[in-house]
Write a structure and sequence with these properties.
Transposase IS30-like HTH domain-containing protein, Homeodomain-like_sf, 4 helices
């Protein structure tokens, strides 16, 4: 469609955008209208609104995903050891 702005793909909503979405939806705006106003996909607006109505918060959940077993410093050391001596096995590292 000529003249239509490209949507931002695969980017997270900022706290400001989440607040805007919740404010507009609370004011009675449609999901489509809110999505057009904040230039986001309707599904992103819908997911934000559903989280707000379900949990009463729009903040990102912390602690999701697997925890790290090593620190960044240890990771760098492991990579450095592997590069210095490629014959060393991972059990030796």
């Amino acid at each position: 469609m000529p003249g239509k702005r490209a949507r931002r793909h695969f980017s997270q909503l900022s706290e400001f955008e989440r607040g805007l979405i919740i404010g507009m939806k609370t004011a009675g705006w449609s999901t489509r209208r809110v999505a057009g106003q904040v230039d986001r996909w309707e599904s992103a607006v819908r997911n934000c609104w559903e989280q707000w109505t379900r949990e009463g918060t729009h903040a990102w959940k912390t602690g999701s995903g697997e925890t790290w077993k090593t620190t960044r410093r240890k990771d760098r050391r492991i990579v450095r050891q592997a590069l210095v001596d490629p014959t060393v096995t991972r059990s030796m590292i």
